[in-house]
Design goal:
With 166 residues, the chain is an all-alpha fold. It folds into two domains: 79 residues, no CATH class; 74 residues, no CATH class. α3 runs parallel beside α4. The two termini are 42 Å apart.
């Protein structure tokens, strides 16, 4: 798993969430882990230990350049919320910027179709995470437009095929 470096929030968030779920520690991130007021000392120690494990997983999965975002946090939920607030800015300007980027995205000449579709998916995921999802219909139209452009280019590319493909 790659460390959070500022450019991979969506993928990182998905992977870390499932890592914590697999270890039974996600409840310390989502706030569902509660320590009863009448908890025994053993229960308090277990709660603190597991909470620290969740925090450690977060801290160790973040690159040094991004650690400043959580260094003042005491609890794993607080750290997660700080990261989320930073990377999922729900401002109108951010929504407009990402939507403009999505609808104006063009496949570069040196890029593969797979890379282009991955980049489009990352943009739709970012928009979804800030409460501004791209409808399925718009995603299909965008992909159909890409396919139509590629189909239009096919006659131009045929003469460039290697001899063994003919």
């Amino acid at each position: 798993m790659d460390k959070l470096d500022g450019s991979n929030w969506i993928t990182w968030k998905f992977q870390v969430k499932h890592l914590l779920l697999g270890k039974g520690l996600w409840k310390y991130i989502d706030g569902s882990a509660m320590l009863a007021e009448d908890a025994t000392e053993e229960q308090r120690l277990k709660f603190k230990s597991e909470s620290q494990k969740a925090f450690s997983i977060l801290a160790m999965a973040i690159s040094a350049s991004q650690l400043y975002l959580i260094t003042s946090c005491e609890e794993p939920k607080e750290a997660w919320d700080a990261l989320k607030k930073h990377f999922e800015r729900e401002t109108l300007a951010n929504k407009l910027f990402l939507k403009k980027k999505y609808f104006r995205k063009e496949m570069s000449e040196d890029s593969s179709i797979e890379t282009h579709i991955k980049e489009m998916k990352e943009l739709t995921d970012k928009l979804s995470s800030i409460g501004s999802p791209i409808s399925e219909e718009d995603q299909v139209v965008t992909l159909l437009f890409l396919e139509a452009c590629l189909h239009h280019l096919t006659p131009l590319l045929l003469p460039l095929r290697p001899v063994w493909m003919i």
